């Protein structure tokens, strides 16, 4: 089990959850988002390798309408 | 008329109207208005994904980045750190390195903080970004940004979302005259006629969001802006007649009866 913060909300994940499986869980397309893990931007090819641990802080962003 | 393409960072654009994608009723209206505007470059913002609603529609489903050149912005950033973070995330998202920097200095006027803007421009250029910079209408700041490697200067016409049109024509003219990079009027245009004026003055392009999105009929207004930008550009290229302080008859007096 890993207790993490995702976009400001506390969530609990199965242990050994990767960023890739996190996106899958939330039905997000990796080509349409960017991820910051503990303040560091993670390149897309590394989503498979990054395993989430307790107290990790994850931000998943995407493009919205703006001027 | 020979083709009058607008080139920005080696990207050839057909339209000199760049449009924002915010403030529309829904994504359907966004897509319709942007199509009607004829724009090929659109600004977008970066925000958190709503993790509570997995089925929420997203902008990319309505405006394909394959069809439109996305210009990520830093709307809502009030310091360099926030702006840099936003644009680095934007670059990771889709591999775009053409971005719009906007660092605000005041919540009420939404005027840019030029010290933070200049600082951010320096860092972004060093990191390989092609930066289009929202800035004040101060010709000195505009020149400093160009010297730092900005890819375009984007002075405000008037405060963001105010619809007040160009407040300082003299400064905008000075910026146009002094710049070697494209000058794009950003923020404050309220009507198509104001866009025409900007283009007649020699601006390379204009960026419009609120004036289209907040119109009663956004799709119709998008078309009006499209036409107004074309008219202004053609007028600029055609070169206006000389002004005269007295009347000059259009009809010859020769052969008068």
Could you provide a short overview of the structure?
Chain A is mainly beta. Chain A has one helix and five strands; from the N terminus they run E-E-H-E-E-E. Chain A starts with a strand and ends with a strand.
Low-confidence stretches of chain A: none
**Unreliable spans of chain B:** none
State the share of residues found in helices of chain B, binned by percent.
Answer: 25-40%
CATH topology of chain A: Ubiquitin-like (UB roll)
Strand-residue proportion of chain A: 35-45%
CA radius of gyration of chain B is: 20 Å
Main β-sheet description of chain A: 5 strands, mixed
Helical region count of chain B?
Answer: 9
The 3D shape of chain A can be described as: globular
Classify the secondary structure makeup of chain B into a structural class: alpha/beta
Oligomer designation: heterodimer
Task: Kindly describe this structure.
Chain A has a single domain, classed as Beta-grasp domain (Ubiquitin-like (UB roll), Roll), CATH 3.10.20.30. Helix content of chain A is 10%, strand content 39%. Chain A contains one helix and five strands, in the order ββαβββ. In chain A, strands 2-1-5-3-4 form a five-stranded mixed β-sheet, with no helix packed on it. In chain A, strand 1 and strand 2 form a beta hairpin. Chain A starts with a strand and ends with a strand. Chain B is an alpha/beta fold and 257 residues long. In chain B, 38% of the residues lie in helices and 17% in strands. In chain B, strands 5-4-3-10-9 form a five-stranded parallel β-sheet. Chain B has a three-stranded parallel β-sheet with strand order 6-7-8. In chain B, a hairpin with a 2-residue loop joins strand 1 and strand 2. Chain B is globular, with a radius of gyration of 20 Å. The relative contact order of chain B is 0.14. The mean pLDDT of chain B is 94. At the A-B interface, strand 3 and strand 5 of A face strand 4 and helix 3 of B.
